[in-house]
TrEMBL record:
Protein name in the entry: ATP-dependent RNA helicase SUV3L, mitochondrial
InterPro entries, A to Z: DExH18_N (IPR056377), DEXQc_SUV3 (IPR055206), Helicase_ATP-bd (IPR014001), Helicase_C-like (IPR001650), P-loop_NTPase (IPR027417), RNA-DNA_Helicase (IPR050699), SUV3_C (IPR022192), Suv3_C_1 (IPR041082)
Enzyme class at the top of the EC tree: hydrolase
Span of domain Helicase C-terminal: 417-581
Length: 777
C-alpha cells in the first residue's frame, strides 16, 4: 500500500472521494476530528506538504504524536459542484500556519499559476449544459483506476477529428494551467518544474489510448475545472506509474530539507529530564549574576556567551574566584588544568558533553536573524541537568512552547532593575563640550566614533577610550579596563552597539550621539530593544556609578529615546534555525553538481519549518561561497567550513586572504599567513584600518585552524603571537589617536578639503517624525 499523503490521495481519488486540504478546514478540523482520522484510515504521512486554495499547508504538522495528519475533509465526490465551498462552515483562521509558511519554497514549486484558477471550491464556469455533461461524465466513468487501466491496456487508437483534437489540446492546456491541479500534484511529489512536462506526457498518453466515447464525453465538458477534476485522478495514476524516479527524487529533496521538529534532533537531550530556569528581566537586574552563582556551585558547568568579550569577562571573573574555568571561542582554546567549567561563545556549544549546569546568556538572541540558530541549538540540544537562560521577556512565551515540546521543566524567575534608569531631559544640547566624566557616548559607525573622540579630546579635557565591532576583543577589553580604571585620565568611553550586551562597565551616563544606524542596506532608526540594551549599560550595580542616567546629544532625539525605553518588549513568535552540515550534505546528494551557494539557496527554498522557527539569513555565507566557487578540490565539508569563517565580506584584503587560504588548503599544502606585523602603532586612520584588517585575517586563520587539521594550519603559535602583537598596537594607536578623519570623498579623490569643523548628520528620527506629521496633515 502506498504510504503517506500520496497514498491517501491516491486512494481517495481512486474511490472518487474528494480530499480537500485547506488551512481553514484544518484549523477547525484539528481539534475535533483528527484523532478519529488517525485511528482509522490514514498512514503517518511521509511527505511534508500539500496545499490548495493557494494556501500552503504543511503536513504532518505538530501532531505527530497522534500519528495523524490533519487533512481537511473527505467528501464524496459528487457530480454537482458545491459552490458554497466547504470552507464556509468554518471560521476564518487569522494567523494560521499558512501565514507563517515559507512561501517561496512552495510558490516556486507551483510556478506562475493562474490566480483565478486557484479556488478550491470551484467557481462553476460551466453553464447548465456543462454541469450536466460533467455529471454524466463522472457517473459513466466513476472509477478512475479502472479508466486508467483501460487506457493502459488499450491498443486501439481512436480516430479523432481535427476540431476534436484542438479542443482536447485546449482541455489539457487548461489542466496544465490549473493551480488547483498543480497544488494537488505536490501531494504525490510532482513539483512545479515537472508538472507541465507530466501533464504534456499525460495528454499524449490520453490522446493515443482513449476511446472515442470518453473523448466525446470529455469534449462536452470542455476546458473547465470540471474536466480538470475528472482527469486529475487518472493523471495521479499515470504519474505514479510513469514517473517513479522523478517522484522519488522530488520526495527526497523535500524530505532532506526537512527542518521540522528540531527538538527531535537531539535524542540524548530529549532522553534527559532537564530543568530550565529562565532568569527574565530588564538590563542590570542581576540575571547573569544569579545564573553564574549556580554555574560556579556546580561540579561542572558551561557558560555560553553572545560575545567573545563577555566570554572572556566570565572566564576572568570565575577564575579570579578560584574556580578553574577554561575559555573556548572560535579563535582560542585556553585549557585551564583541572578545570571542569568552560566559558564559551554560543556558537562553540557542544551538545555532546554532559554538564550539571549550563548558562545561556542573552537568550532573546534566539530571534536574531543571522545568529539566532546558535541559541536555539543550545537550548534544544544541551545535555545539562539544569539550564539557566538569561534574557529579556521577549522570548519567554516561545521558550514556554519549546519546553512543552521537549518535555523539560520550566522555572521562571522574574527580575526588576536594581535602580531605575533616569532619562536626563536636558540632553547635551548638541554640544559635546557638555560631556562629563563617566559618560559613554554611543555612535553607530566607526567613522562617527572617531569624530566624537577627536571632538571631545579637542574641545574638553577628557580623554576617550573607544570600543567598536572591528576591534579585536583583546583591544576592546584593554579599552574597557582603561576606562574602568580610576587611576588614569581616560574617563569617557565612545562606543558602538558592540558595548550593548551584558558587559559591566563603570558608566554613569549613556549619551546617544545619534539613534540611526546603517543596517547594511540603508540608514534606519535603531530598534527599541537595542536602545534599551545599550542604555542599560549605565549605572551597573557594584560599579562606581550605581545610579544610571541616559540622554541624547540633541534635544530632537530625546523623544525617540524615551519612546524606546517605554516600549514594552516585543513578543517573539519565531526563533532561528540553520541546518547542520550533515543535513546540507544529505540535501546535496539529491542535487548533485550544484554550486554550493546555489545549494544553500535551494535548501532555503525547499526547507520545511514548523511555525515557531525561521531559517537564519545566510547572505554572508553565500557571498563567500560565490568567491570560493572557483577553488577546485574542496570537499563539501571543507567548503562549508570555509564559508562559515568569520570574514568581513566588505574587506577585500580579508576576502582575498580567505580565498588564498582555501586555495592553498585545496592543494593539500600547509597554509601560511604570508603577512607581517607593522613595527609601530598607527599614525593615521588608514594605518589603523590596516591594523584592524590584519587582526581580522589573523583571527580568521586561528578560526580555520580550529576547524581543520593541524597539518593544514600549522602556524598557529606564530599567528597567535602576531595577533597579540597587533591587538597591542591597536590599543596603543587608539590611545594616541588624534588625527582628523578623512572623508570618503577625500580618500577617493586623494585631496584634502578645507576644515569645515564638526558637523553631525541630520537626525533621521526627526525626518521620520516630520514625514509622519506631514502625512497626518
Ligand atoms: N546579588 C548581587 N550581589 C552583588 N552584585 C550583584 C548582584 N547581582 C548583580 N550584581 C552585579 O550587578 C551587575 C549587573 O548584574 P548582571 O550582569 O547580572 O545584570 P543582567 O541582568 O545580566 O544585565 P544585562 O541584561 O545587561 O546582562 C553586575 O556587575 C553584577 O556583578
Ligand atoms: Mg547579563
Amino acid at each position: 500500500m502506498a504510504r503517506g499523503v500520496a497514498g491517501v490521495l491516491r486512494r481517495a481519488y481512486s474511490s472518487r472521494v474528494r480530499v480537500l486540504l485547506s488551512t481553514r478546514n484544518l484549523h477547525s478540523f484539528r481539534e475535533t476530528e483528527s484523532r478519529s482520522l488517525c485511528n482509522s484510515d490514514f498512514d503517518v504521512p511521509t511527505n511534508r506538504f500539500c496545499s490548495c486554495n493557494r494556501v500552503r499547508i504543511q503536513l504532518p504538522w505538530n501532531d505527530y504524536r497522534f500519528g495523524c495528519f490533519e487533512i481537511g475533509k473527505v467528501r464524496t465526490f459528487s457530480s454537482t459542484v458545491d459552490n458554497n465551498g466547504e470552507n464556509d462552515d468554518v471560521e476564518e483562521s487569522a494567523g494560521s500556519e499558512s501565514d507563517d509558511y515559507d512561501e517561496e519554497g512552495v510558490i516556486n514549486e507551483l510556478g506562475d499559476v493562474d490566480e483565478s484558477l486557484l479556488n478550491d471550491s470551484v467557481v462553476a464556469k460551466t453553464d447548465e449544459i456543462g454541469s450536466e455533461a460533467a455529471r454524466a461524465l463522472n457517473a459513466r466513468y466513476n472509477d478512475p483506476v479502472e479508466l486508467y487501466r483501460e487506457l493502459r491496456e488499450s491498443e486501439v487508437r481512436s480516430k479523432i477529428q481535427r476540431s476534436e483534437w484542438d479542443s482536447l489540446h485546449e482541455i489539457f492546456g487548461y489542466f496544465a494551467q490549473s493551480g488547483w491541479a498543480a497544488n494537488q500534484a505536490l501531494a504525490i511529489y510532482i513539483g512545479k518544474s515537472f508538472f507541465p512536462t507530466a501533464v504534456s506526457k499525460f495528454r499524449d498518453f490520453f490522446l493515443e489510448k482513449c476511446r472515442i466515447e470518453v473523448v466525446q464525453d470529455l469534449l462536452r465538458v470542455g476546458p473547465t475545472d470540471e474536466a480538470v477534476k475528472f482527469l486529475f485522478p487518472v493523471f495521479v495514476e499515470f504519474c505514479i506509474e510513469e514517473f517513479p524516479d522523478e517522484i522519488k527524487r522530488f520526495q527526497s529533496i523535500v524530505d532532506t530539507a526537512d527542518l521540522t521538529k528540531p527538538a527531535t534532533w537531539f535524542p540524548f537531550a530529549r532522553a534527559m529530564k532537564r530543568k530550565i530556569v529562565y532568569h527574565c528581566g530588564p538590563t542590570n537586574s542581576g540575571k547573569t549574576y544569579n545564573a553564574l552563582q549556580r554555574f560556579m556551585e556546580a561540579k561542572n558547568g558551561l557558560y555560553c556567551s553572545p560575545l567573545r568579550l563577555l566570554a572572556m569577562e566570565v572566564f576572568d571573573k570565575v577564575n579570579a574566584l578560584g574556580i578553574y574555568c577554561s575559555l573556548l571561542t572560535g579563535q582560542e582554546k585556553k585549557h585551564v588544568p583541572f578545570a571542569n567549567h568552560v566559558s564559551c561563545t554560543v556558537e562553540m556549544v557542544s551538545t555532546d558533553e554532559l554538564y550539571e549546569v549550563a548558562v545561556i546568556d542573552e537568550i532573546q538572541m534566539m530571534a536574531d536573524p543571522s545568529r539566532g540558530h546558535a541559541w536555539t541549538k543550545a537550548l534544544l540540544g544541551l545535555k545539562a541537568d539544569e539550564i539557566h537562560l538569561c534574557g529579556d521577556p521577549s522570548v519567554l512565551d516561545i521558550v514556554r512552547k519549546m519546553c512543552a515540546d521537549t518535555g523539560d521543566e520550566l522555572v521562571e524567575e522574574h527580575y526588576e532593575r536594581f535602580k531605575p534608569l533616569v532619562v536626563e531631559a536636558k540632553t547635551l544640547l548638541g554640544d559635546l563640550k557638555n560631556v562629563k566624566s563617566g559618560d559613554c557616548v554611543v555612535a553607530f559607525s566607526r567613522r562617527e566614533i572617531f569624530e566624537v573622540k577627536m571632538a571631545i579630546e579637542k574641545h574638553t579635557n577628557h580623554r576617550c577610550c573607544v570600543i567598536y565591532g572591528a576591534l579585536p576583543p583583546e583591544t576592546r577589553r584593554q579599552q574597557a579596563n582603561l576606562f574602568n580604571d580610576q587611576e588614569n585620565e581616560y574617563d569617557v568611553l565612545v562606543a558602538s552597539d558592540a558595548v550593548g550586551m551584558g558587559l559591566n562597565l563603570n558608566i554613569r551616563r549613556v549619551v546617544f550621539y545619534s539613534l540611526n544606524k546603517y543596517n547594511g542596506d540603508k540608514i534606519v532608526p535603531v530598534a527599541a530593544s537595542q536602545v534599551k540594551q545599550i542604555a542599560g549599560r549605565a549605572g551597573r550595580r557594584g560599579s562606581r556609578y550605581p545610579d544610571g542616567l541616559t540622554t541624547t546629544l540633541h534635544l530632537e532625539d530625546l523623544n525617540y529615546l524615551i519612546e524606546c525605553l517605554q516600549q514594552p518588549f516585543d513578543e517573539v513568535t519565531k526563533v532561528g534555525l540553520f541546518p547542520f552540515f550533515e543535513q546540507i550534505e544529505l540535501f546535496a546528494a539529491q542535487v548533485p553538481d550544484m554550486a554550493f551557494s546555489k545549494l544553500l539557496d535551494h535548501f532555503g527554498k525547499h526547507c520545511r519549518l514548523d511555525g515557531s522557527y525561521f531559517l537564519c539569513r545566510h547572505d554572508h555565507v553565500k557571498k563567500v561561497a560565490n568567491m570560493l566557487e572557483k577553488v577546485q578540490g574542496l570537499s563539501l565539508e571543507d567548503r562549508f567550513n570555509f564559508c562559515f569563517a568569520p570574514v568581513n565580506i566588505r574587506n577585500p584584503k580579508a576576502m582575498y586572504q580567505l580565498y588564498r587560504f582555501a586555495s592553498t588548503y585545496s592543494q593539500d599544502t600547509p597554509v601560511n599567513i604570508a603577512m607581517g606585523v607593522p613595527k609601530s602603532s598607527a599614525k593615521n586612520d588608514t594605518e589603523l584600518l590596516d591594523l584592524e584588517s590584519r587582526h581580522q585575517i589573523l583571527s580568521m586563520y586561528l578560526w580555520l585552524s580550529n576547524q581543520f587539521e593541524e597539518k593544514n594550519f600549522p602556524f598557529v603559535e606564530r599567528v597567535e603571537a602576531m595577533a597579540t602583537n597587533v591587538a597591542e598596537l591597536l590599543g596603543e594607536s587608539l590611545s594616541k589617536a588624534s588625527w582628523k578623519m578623512e572623508s570618503k570623498e577625500e580618500k577617493v579623490k586623494g585631496q584634502k578639503k578645507e576644515d569645515r569643523g564638526y558637523e553631525r548628520p541630520a537626525s533621521l528620527i526627526k525626518l521620520v517624525n516630520k514625514r509622519k506629521e506631514e502625512n497626518l496633515v
